[in-house]
Structures are given as C-alpha cells and as structure tokens.
Amino acid sequence: AQKVTQAQTEISVVEKEDVTLDCVYETRDTTYYLFWYKQPPSGELVFLIRRNSFDEQNEISGRYSWNFQKSTSSFNFTITASQVVDSAVYFCALSGGNFGNEKLTFGTGTRLTIIP
Amino acid sequence: EAQVTQNPRYLITVTGKKLTVTCSQNMNHEYMSWYRQDPGLGLRQIYYSMNVEVTDKGDVPEGYKVSRKEKRNFPLILESPSPNQTSLYFCASSFSATSPYEQYFGPGTRLTVT
Fold this sequence. Notes:
The structure holds 2 protein chains of 2 kinds.
Chain A: E1 3-5, E2 10-14, E3 19-21, E4 24-26, E5 33-39, E6 46-52, E7 59-61, E8 64-69, E9 74-79, E10 88-95, E11 105-106, E12 110-115
Parallel strand pairs in A: 2-12
Antiparallel strand pairs in A: 1-4, 3-9, 5-6, 5-10, 7-8, 8-9, 10-11, 10-12
Chain B: E1 4-7, E2 10-13, E3 19-25, E4 31-38, E5 42-51, E6 54-57, E7 65-66, E8 76-78, E9 87-94, E10 104-105, E11 109-113
C-alpha cells in the first residue's frame, strides 16, 4: 500500500523567512511519481511539480525548490523568502503502481501561514 | 482555455434527496477521477475512469455512483446522500490512463448534507 506522511500540520513563519515542508512517502513500487499541490484559501488545487522516481535531481523554480531523496523516501519543499501569497495548504502526493488508475495518494496537508 | 469545470460549486441538501455533481473537461483527456477532501484526511479517491464506459472504484466508493458516457463528462451521483458525505469534492482529469501525467483539478464542489 502507498502512504504519504506530512507530519507538519501547521506552520507559521514571518514574511521573508525560508520554510521547508516535509513529505515522507512509502511505496513498494520501483517506478512512481511524486507531486506537490497548493491549495490557497480560495480552495482550488494548483499543481506545483511532478517528479519521477528515477530523477533525483533537485529542482528550483523561482523561490520554490524541491529536494528528492530516495534513500530517506522524502520529497521536501522549500520556499525561500516567503511571501504572504504563499499562505495556503500544501499537499504532497504519490502515484504509481496502479496501472490504469493514476490515483494520487495524498498526504494530509500542511497549512502554511505567512505572517506579514 | 483548458479547464475542468464542476457544477454546482456549493450545494446544501437534505438526507436522502438524490443529487448529481457534474464534471466536464475540454482537454480530450482519457482519465478522469473524483476525490473527496476531509479535514485531517487529505484527498481520497472515490471513483475513476480510464476511458468512455470504463469506470472503477477508488478507495471510498460507498454511497456514490458514476458514469462515463462521453469522454468529456464524468458526473458523480449520490443516490441517497447522508450527512457523512458532507465534504469538498474535486473532479480531476489527466491526458492518459497509462502514465501519471499532471492531473488537472476542477474548482471543487462544497456539499453539505443535513
């Protein structure tokens, strides 16, 4: 069975601080995909990144960066110089091993609050 | 504009009154899916569809039905809603059923069953 754990339920930081959201996953598949989604207060789900299990290179996109470590089954997300607009719930998700059903197994989310 | 639409966005209903939440995508995607989001539980899959006339259960299918008569539409049917189905529902679609491409999510439907 697949599982995604986001141990941090809520995080608050002051604007311009860096913040890291943790994601630990469990799967027996050798091929799998990891995702991060952002859910702002308006409620929609915004896709941030997809990473496959064969690509362990870290990725940076502006103020966002992701650290994928297969050895520790983690896919952490860092926001540098946080801004108020980053306030949202962030979900880590896992897919793979369900041929024909690209079900996303979601973590329970981390609510990030950026204090001005 | 490529998008997934859901209707209604908000719905308050009473126990036992059948309802349908519609989902439509304009990207010619093969794969569509329904999730429900509950506090502390994240999102869980209800049903999915690999293509027209092909549907199957996800993790929490009890109390729900779906159909896929056309590629673009994937309605979620609650024959006899109960209060434990009060939740935020998301429809999602993806290009292919055989590879986990990015899933596009609809805006969500907030359902309250009293």
